[in-house]
């Protein structure tokens, strides 16, 4: 209890030197046994993480997904309120599970790639050095075949409706 009082006093009076002291103080509050305060801090952290740049782009898709689930058709109005709420909660849960699966698979792939890169670091450094030297020689003009300028000019495609209007 004494630790919590000191931490709260420092929070309100600005007695912390830096961010790490503040984080240590919040951690002490959360672990000192005051569950209600810990729940409040957790909810506040959830709100802050919801406003993070990683989550904000997902919100429009989430809201439009839920709007399509809820809908404004006659069948939705005929359903009992409890069933409609369960349907929306289930859809929200599946949406979250879907994004969790995608980000989890991406994280696992990146971690696997990181392990491969670390294991083959010396080889990749040598390959990068050779590519850098070759590109420097190309820019200096030592490989005339690589100094060509090639452009792609697409031809216009005609459609069936355009040809029938000409006739």
Structure in words:
This is Cytochrome C biogenesis protein transmembrane region. InterPro entries: Cytochrome_c-biogenesis_DsbD. The structure is a single chain. This protein has helices at residues 2-13, 19-31, 35-50, 59-70, 74-78, 81-119, 121-140, 160-166. It is built from eight helices and no strands. It is mainly alpha-helical. Helix 1 (2-13) runs antiparallel to helix 2, helix 2 crosses helix 3 (35-50) and helix 4 runs antiparallel to helix 6. Among the domains are: 1-52, no CATH class; 79-139.
| Percentage beta strand | under 5%
User: How does the overall form come out from the CA principal axes?
Assistant: flat
Along the chain, the helix and strand elements come as HHHHHHHH
Number of strands: 0
Assembly category: single chain
Unreliable stretches, pLDDT < 50, 5 or more residues?
1-8
Radius of gyration: 30 Å
User: What's the main sheet like?
Assistant: none
Distance between the termini: 91 Å
Organism: Mycolicibacterium chlorophenolicum
Keywords: Membrane, Transmembrane, Transmembrane helix
Transmembrane segments: 35-68, 88-111, 123-146
Protein name: Cytochrome C biogenesis protein transmembrane region
